[in-house]
């Protein structure tokens, strides 16, 4: 109950804040105008009230003729002044009505100097209480002059007197007065006593000081009169002050000494040490003067709440606030009405029944669900028939139906029937348009929604990539993998603002994802030193993956310091302005890493790629880095155990063998798909057959053009820098430490135009280690390029002339 109440007030508050009136009231101009108005209005009332005390009797007759021009008022501020004064003073609180003037004035003043609203409220509370008290007190003191107390004070006074009597009321009024002083000004009897004691002590101290000063002055006079010779003896009394003198004085000759002494004695402050002694003695009698410090000001609200109130929630999309999401008309529409020939249905049904009959399997019931590319026949076998029997007949049924892509699901989970999926003769294309525009996708509250396509029952299939949390995609070439990847990316582009999601695209084939280059500054993330955001080069992939691991570690640190468990909570907290950007906190976009041809990467870089991928797959889910890895060859050396274990969500397009199907899905079936976007999706438990939404290259081009033509960030989202241990930049060999054979080695390499350690080994008759060191030094000098696996290093210097020049330049530096 309480919570619902709270939320209600919260929502009403936020509504208030959103209405233009309240927004308008918050501007400083409005506040200045309001403050000034209140101050001047209080001046107006003050003049009117004062004037009213002199003219109230004369103005009595004019009060009810506010609109009558002929009737004039004596009040300095006319009839309005007279009427207002009559209302507040005569009918209200008498002389105490001046409190209202004061309150209005102080409110205006507080608004001008931006005091807190709470202060204004407190001030009004005290002001109104004081007004009522004064009004009653004046009514009590001057019953004859009712104007002083106003009708309110007069009546309350009369009323209370009948209950308490005159004396009782007097006591109550005095009590209220002191209560007010004690609470409002925090004055207690102790403070008075202490102040009084402190004053008394100070008076005493002053009196004693004066006495000492007088006596010391007399002493000085006496000393002045003493002849120079005797002054040496007299000095003892002022010993302390003499010691404090500069050392130069002591080094003077006797004659000088005498002169110095005279000088010293003339300085009156030298008496001070005596004085100090006396006051110390004196202070022993004194009580400590305890100063009661004023209570610290407390804020009524949390700082982050205040920032939230003043600036509203943090809006990550603010920098690109005019960003427009791609429109539906960029996507092609196809004729998607599913039509299946009733004859085809009937024929299929008959064949299924007959085939099963041949194997002595009776059917109690059969039902067909027509999907975009396949039709599902659900059969209920007669009692006593074993399910495994039907499952084993898969190939026979396929043969008798003479169709590709038959899949038998026995039993359909949660239904208790057996499903036989038969492809339609005429398949319908599921357009991306229909997936994106579906209610299910549009209204989804998922973090990273993906409209993958349509199920057999023609429902749009929407999944959350954030929940997957990583996706493995496999399928033989030409079966719809690239289209599937585009469908995933398109879904995210239609739903997520550039501030909310960033893509890291790895495309070893170099052609599949190039279109996304156009949205580099909106949606892509890249390494700081790379020119192209889409990564096609293997070494860059390794760097990017390691950089993502660093980003992951950084994000975990942020999450830890924010004391939240995942990116969603973190971003919510950040939006609520509970995390300070000065402590390194920032809004974290999701990062989706897409690798188009994983097999290729594993072949070229092996462990170097596998290790960071496995690390990311294991740990990155909580911090918003999600992986989509696609491969043509779902063999076990590509999709290794460790990768498989961390990619529970899998999509299988048609694969060529049952083994591949098992590798990707841990079950058969993918080998029996019909291709062209026909896929099986699993997230660990059940397998769903889906017709992937179709988005072709011109559509992707239109979408990327649409986004690319809009205002973008200054550059792509930058990932943390990763310095490879083996890269040339990390080798920093001092020129002085170079091998004696450095120049000779350089010449051999330049002559051969081939940078390999074995060449140096042979030509210079060196051991492997020394040749390796030489190569490192040559690399650091910029003579050979970086390590390129089994290939020889590139030679960057064309001839000896260039070498000489390079070495000369080095010396100059
Ligand atoms: N969802 C779909 N609906 C209809 N047709 C599709 C669908 N997906 C793919 N196709 C058809 O299949 C063809 C090949 O698709 P795609 O290029 O995605 O295959 P691929 O698996 O990526 O091939 P490769 O691995 O060689 O790149 C497309 O040109 C298209 O004609």
TrEMBL record:
What broad class describes the main subcellular location of this protein? Answer: membrane
Q: Which residues form a coiled coil?
A: none
Q: Which GO terms describe its biological process?
A: cell division; chromosome segregation
Q: Where does ATP bind?
A: 475-482
Listed InterPro entries = FtsK/SpoIIIE/SftA (IPR050206), FtsK_4TM (IPR025199), FtsK_alpha (IPR041027), FtsK_dom (IPR002543), Ftsk_gamma (IPR018541), P-loop_NTPase (IPR027417), WH-like_DNA-bd_sf (IPR036388), WH_DNA-bd_sf (IPR036390)
GO MF annotation terms: ATP binding; DNA binding
One of the record's GO cellular component terms: plasma membrane
- Any one Pfam family here would be FtsK_alpha
Kindly list the places in or outside the cell where this protein is found, as annotated in its UniProt entry.
Cell membrane
> Plastid: is it a keyword of this entry?
no
Topology class, membrane: Multi-pass membrane protein
Name used for this protein in its record: DNA segregation ATPase FtsK/SpoIIIE, S-DNA-T family
